[in-house]
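Quiz preparation item.
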């Protein structure tokens, strides 16, 4: 009996990934990569599955294979997507490195600001995160503002894969600890820094 082809392994990985059977997806994707190294479709599944499973060594191996491919040749597996996978995997140094690459290409990159600030926060370097955010706000660039907003949103109300990483109990705790009043205060401060509104006008309207 002949060995399954790379295409068969990839299809198996895709089905397992859709059903959230991440260990099976990872095994099948790696089998596809053994037969066809550097295959982006298989690398995408392998990255996602290894991140979900917390297999950082495997994640780093797959990420290195992706980063060796010029960015323009992998539009469906961009640095932005790879960086978010790295955050999910807990590979915060890699997420920061990818964010810096994005910022080298565009100093106002929303994804770059989000990744570097998020990675810094995760390792407890809040000073670096806040300095980056302050610089982004001072730049007056719309893309930079979006990066700040995405970072704040991730901390305030985790969703998607970040919610999966925290788990239902973790996300419930985050939402319980951060009241709507605190949210409102944070966003008012952000809007003031953006020059969207002034504190005096808010105070007088609420009086």
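Solution:
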């Amino acid at each position: 009996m002949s060995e399954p082809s790379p295409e068969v392994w990839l299809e198996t990985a895709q089905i397992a990934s859709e059903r959230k059977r991440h260990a099976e997806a990872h095994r099948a994707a790696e089998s596809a990569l053994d037969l066809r190294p550097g295959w982006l479709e298989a690398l995408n599944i392998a990255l996602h599955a290894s991140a979900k499973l917390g297999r950082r060594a495997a994640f780093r191996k797959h990420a290195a294979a992706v980063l060796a491919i010029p960015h323009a040749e992998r539009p469906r597996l961009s640095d932005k997507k790879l960086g978010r996978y790295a955050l999910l995997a807990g590979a915060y140094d890699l997420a920061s490195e990818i964010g810096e690459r994005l910022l080298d290409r565009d100093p106002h990159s929303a994804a770059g600001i989000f990744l570097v600030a998020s990675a810094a926060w995760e390792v407890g370097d809040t000073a670096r995160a806040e300095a980056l955010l302050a610089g982004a706000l001072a730049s007056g660039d719309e893309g930079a503002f979006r990066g700040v907003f995405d970072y704040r949103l991730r901390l305030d109300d985790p969703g998607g894969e970040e919610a999966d990483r925290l788990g239902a109990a973790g996300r419930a705790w985050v939402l319980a600890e951060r009241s709507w009043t605190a949210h409102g205060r944070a966003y008012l401060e952000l809007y003031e820094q953006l020059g969207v509104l002034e504190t005096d006008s808010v105070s007088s309207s609420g009086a």
